[in-house]
Structure formats: structure tokens, C-alpha cells
Amino acid sequence: MGKWIKSGSPWIWLTAGAVSLSLIAVLGLLLLIGWKGLSYFWPAPVYQFDIEQNGQSQVVIGEVYERQMIPLTQLAEAGVDVSMMAGPKEPRYLIKIGNRERVGLDFMTILGSQIKQKQLADGIAVIDREQNGKFYGYPVSYIDDDQRYPVSELHAGLEQAQVVRDEMARIKQEDFSAINWQLEELRVEERRKTLAQSLTPAEQAEFAAKREALNQQYLALEKHLFALQSRLERDAFVVRDMTGEEVRLPIEQVLDVWYPNNLTTTEKVMHWLKQVGKFLRDDPREANTEGGVFPAIFGTVFMVMLMSVIVTPLGVLAAIYLHEYAGRNRFTKLIRVAVINLAGVPSIVYGVFGLGFFVYMVGGTVDDLFFSAQLPAPTFGTPGILWSALTLAILTLPVVIVSTEEGLARVPSSVRHGSLALGATQAETLWRIVLPMASPAIMTGLILAVARAAGEVAPLMLVGVVKMAPTLPIDGNFPYIHLDRKFMHLGYHIYDVGFQSPNVEAARPLVYATSFLLVTVIIGLNLTAIGIRNHLREKFRSLEQ
User: Can you name the CATH fold of 298-544?
Assistant: First the structure.
């Protein structure tokens, strides 16, 4: 036994066991998050409960959201009559009933003893809406221009309504945006000439004529928009809710209708894929508790890519100076200690630094020099995606510096000496020989930087991220890429939905779904970087040998 311990085998097995347990824990966590998040899009069965509560009978229709076994002692302490309950525990059901504008609640709690009958609600429809969440009811008819039609005509009506909604969204997001952009450009140009005291009466009249022409275009689009809106308002979907009352739902609010209890397994899978697709490509609504997360996906990926473009050259240049040019003295040692200590600074401190230095100092100066015509409304003197990328670049800079230095140190000195002996300068040796051989280590540093930056939230709350961004940082208006705009981020979306939502219980599955999506995005970015690193490693393996 003593010889076996001295051989080091126990430590090998201990290390292997620790790595295995870590991998199992990570995979288990990912599977849990993925299951909790992706199961939200599966069409759950809808039940009809006949209950008796406080001596009154009631019909409740909804999904079984959660089931718990509650000790009778706990129910008794809460003032519940437990005399008619059998067993030490009583089942408690959390029922998602929807119909928020009529009931006032998204959920209802029912004890097992209160349920007289439970059955699948045959023919029940789940209606996804623009506002007020889902509606559960029995379809009655479809109304088109005050004419009642069978429910079978609803599908064609929904397709028509979606075409009209898409046209309205295009007008708002593209046409109105383009006109507003041109009006703002005219205002800024006129103000710039006014400040320079070079505005002539002829130019002033020209500005007024252009502004009037744009206003007329705006009014024409507005008239067309109102006409489309009126087309939607005349159609409706009539359903009967759980109280037996017929409810008229405007077709403009109805996004989708499905019958979860009548779907086959294949249809359920297709419905699940459709809902996941909507989650990935749609904009959020209802205070981020409904709809999709496309703006947050776009903002996260765009910010990380911008950060990578900034941090890579800065980190590589700093590492080259420290390893190739700086002398081995106390000053260099002090710089290395500072770089290592920067990696341990809390991220919120970087956020405060970014707000004070980048936003207020640098951004305010840029506004004074180049955007004085827009003042007092700031352009770059306010949080935006550029300052977020720069802040995270500073935050991840130590990782890239240390990783690049290690890569430079692994390049054999004989390679440098051979290049210099053949007449190459030190700069040419670095650019053509050393850096290509150290590129796998540079990519390793970038991988670590991306993994950390993509999940950071605290600094972004100060320097650019917002709950809801009306427009993306990229659009069809010059200069097409707007680095001064605020943006949405998956990490902040998780925080907002999980802790700032007006209905936390209903939004909880979205927290899991968005968390799984954020992990997936980070893994995707890392796998891309790992693929590039492995390609570079194979390319320069022969030189290392």
C-alpha cells in the first residue's frame, strides 16, 4: 500500500475522479436548465376541474403548472380546515388559468380535497395574444366584417391578420424610421449652419421645403397605417371561457391558436419547433415575459464580437512589448503584477470606470468636438454598445495578455535566432514567424475572454444595456452601424425577467429558456474560436517541431 501511495497513482485517480465529478455536475446542470427551459414550449394538456371551495361550486380550466405535497400541519397553521383530508399530506396544484384581463390572476391554487372531478378539456383552445398572455376557451365562431363564420375559417383569418401585422411592423420599423432619420439629419444640419452663423434665407427655405415633403410622406404612411389597423379591428374570434360566457377577442391581438388536447405526437413536436423558432426570432413583449429574445441574442453576439476586435490587438501588443522589448527590471515586474491584479478586480468596478471615463469623459469630449449640433442631447456622451465593448475589453485584457505571453514564451529561441541570422529584422521576425506560431495561444486567450465577457451583466448595466431597445445597432440608415445606441443582452434579460418581472411565477420558465440560450451562444462562440485555434495549431505544428 505504501509503495502504491508513493507511486502517485492515488493522486492520479483522485484528479481523474474530481474532473469526472465536475463534468457530471456541469452536464447535469445544463440538462436541468435545458429541460426546464425547452419544456416550456411543449403544448401541455389543459384540464377542466370541477371544484368546491367555501361551499361554492366552480369550474376551472387550465394547465397543471406545479404539484406539491403539503403536510397537513402546515395547512392547519395557515388556517385551512384539514378535518376532511386523509393522510399526512395533501396535494396542492398550481393551475395556470390565463385569461388575465377577466380573472385578474394567471394562476390559481387548488387543494386535492377541493377537486370533485378532473378531466381533459375536450376541444379547448389555447390562444396566444399580443397582450394579457394566453387565453383558454372553447371556440364558438369567427367574425369577419360583422359576419359570423364557422371556426374552420379562423386559420385563413389568422394568416390574413399576420400579413397585415407584418406590413404594419414594416411601416413602423422601416418607413417611419427612415423619415424620422431624415428629419433629424435636416434638423442637425440646419442647427449646425445656425451655430456657424452661415444659414442663408434660401437655405432656410430649402430646409423647410424638404421638411414639409417628409411630413407629407409621413402623413401618407400614417393614413395607410390607420387603414390597415381598421381592417384588423373589424375581425374577431369568439370563444367561451370557463364561466360559460362568450368573449370576443379582437383578431389583431390573436397571434396563434392550437388545441393541445387534440394534437398527435408528431403535431406536438412540430408545434414545439414552431414555438422555439418564435422564441429565437421574435421581439419581446409584455415586459419581456412573452415573445422572443432576438434583440437580446443580436446584442449579445454583436457586443462580444466588437469586444473581441478591440481586446485582441491591445492584448497582443501589450504582451509583445512585455515579452519581446521590455527589460527585465522592477518597472516591468510592477506592470506584470498590475496585470495579474486587474484580473481579480470585481466587474462592477470596471462598470463604474467605464461610465466615468468612457461615457462621461471620452464620450462627452467627442460630443463637444464632433456632435455639438445635437447638444444638449448626447450622442456618444451616454451609455451605448461601443462603451460596453470597451469596458469589457479592459475587463478581459489581462486574460489575453497572460495567454499571449505564454504563447510567445513557448516559441523556441532558435527560431528567432535563425530568422535574425538570415537578415530579417526583429519586427519582421515577430510578424512572420513568432506571432503565427503563438496564434493558438492568442486564440486561447480570446476564448477565455469571450467566455467571461458574454456572461457579464453588472458592468453592462452602467454602460449600455437596457431592458428594451426599440431599434438594433444595425439598420438601413447611414452609417448603418450605430455604436452609440443602447442594446439588449441575454444576461440582463435573465436578471430582468427573473427579478424585475411583474409576474415572476409566469416568467420563470423563460428564465430557464434564456439561460440555456445564453450558455448555447457562449458555447457556440467558444467552439468557433476553438476550431480556429486547432486549425492554426495544426498549421504551425511542423514549425514548433
Answer: MetI-like fold (1.10.3720)
- Segment 264-268 shows an average pLDDT of 94
What is d(CA 287, CA 500) in angstroms, rounded to the nearest whole number? 9
The phi, psi pair for 245, rounded to 5°, reads -90, 140
Q: What's the rounded Cα separation, in Å, for the pair 315 and 447?
A: 13
Q: Write out the three cell numbers for 450.
A: 469571450
Domain boundary assignment for the chain:
47-134, 142-266, 298-544
pTM of the predicted protein model: 0.90
What are 3-23's pLDDT values in tens digits? Answer: 767 777 778 888 889 999 999
Sign of CA dihedral 181, 183, 186, 190: negative
- Please give the Cα distance from 514 to 493 (Å, whole number): 8
**Strand 290-291, strand 284-285: pairing:** antiparallel
In 3D space, the residue among 146, 489, 439 whose CA is nearest the CA of residue 304 turns out to be 489
Polymer length in residues for the chain: 545
Look at residue 486 in the predicted model and tell me its pLDDT.
Answer: 94
Radius of gyration of the chain (CA): 31
What DSSP string describes 345-403? Answer: S-HHHHHHHIIIIIIIIIIHHHHHHH-GGGTTS-SSSS--HHHHHHHHHHHHHHHHHHH
